[in-house]
Amino acid sequence: MTPVDDGSRQRPLRLFVASELPADALARIAAWQERELAPRGALRVNRSLHLTLCFLGSVPAERRAEVENVLAGVPVEPATVAVGDAIFLPEHGRKRIVALPLTAAAGAPGGLQRLHDLQARIAAALIGSDLCEAESRPWLPHLTVARFRRPGHPFDLQNVNFGELLLSRVVLYTSVLDRSGAIHTPLRTYTAR
Predict the structure, then answer these.
(1) Do 15 and 59 meet the contact criterion of CB atoms below 8 Å apart?
(2) Which residues pair with 57 in a beta bridge?
(3) How far is the CA of 7 from the CAs of 2, 12, 95, 164, 176, in angstroms?
(4) Number of H helices, E strands in the chain
(5) pLDDT at residue 8, as a whole number
(6) Selection from 4-8, 69-73, 151-155, 176-180 with the highest mean pLDDT
(7) Cα(103)–Cα(123) distance, rounded to whole angstroms?
(8) Nearest residue to 171 (alpha-carbon basis) of 13, 36, 20
(9) Is residue 45 a contact partner of residue 178, using CB atoms and an 8 Å limit?
(10) Between the CA atoms of 123, 124, 128 and 133, what dihedral angle is there, to the nearest 10 degrees?
């Protein structure tokens, strides 16, 4: 006898973990995006700014609580970083992404290392719990501010000056792909203790 699908199984969740940006930094970056990036027809501006720490991908919905518990066990330390000049990714070949890399802050030289340490702890905990796979490339702390509609080429950008950012909150997000782009919904927030 073939089992009947009664629809009770939940669809897998597309999950990622990110550091949330302070509201004032989000406002400054959004205003810059409108001035410098939105007028360029070759780009689609990213309105959902965050610093991705770990992408889990498709996770069975019934494992969500396990993901939340693993993340609750990772201590979050605040990290102060700066925003660098725009870069175009991938590093080689035609570009697909306009990004703002995060760099060491003059006023808090250890902040960038704390951020790298946090990312490594989160990734190790999730990989160790068999909730995601290790990335093949080294982690690059950056904010994706726009995507090319078709692969493009670097161009000059002005007024990339956002000061220092204090990152003190980590968020577990679900992401749903839509024609207009991904829709990110926060599921749980973890704050520095």
Answers:
(1) yes
(2) 15
(3) 15, 13, 42, 48, 20
(4) 3, 10
(5) 52
(6) 69-73
(7) 20
(8) 20
(9) no
(10) 40
* Geometric angle at alpha carbon 156, from 34 and 19, rounded to 5°: 55
Top-confidence residue, 109 or 171:
171
Give the span between the Cα atoms of 20 and 189, in whole angstroms: 9
Contact 139, 117 (CB under 8 A): no
Q: Are the CB atoms for 192 and 77 separated by under 8 Å?
A: yes
Indicate the pLDDT class of residue 182, thresholds 50, 70 and 90. confident
84-124 pLDDT per residue, tens: 999 999 998 899 999 999 999 998 889 999 999 999 999 99
More confident residue, 70 or 109: 70
The Cα 170–Cα 71 span in angstroms is 9
105 within 8 A of 80, measured Cβ to Cβ: yes
Query: H helices within the chain, ranges in order?
Result: 23-32, 64-72, 111-128
Q: Using 50, 70 and 90 to split pLDDT, how confident is the model at 21?
A: very high
Write the DSSP symbol of residue 81. Answer: E
- CATH ID of 13-191, from 3.90.1150.10, 3.90.1140.10, 3.40.50.150, 3.90.226.10: 3.90.1140.10
Helix orientation angle between 64-72 and 111-128, rounded to the nearest 10 degrees? 140
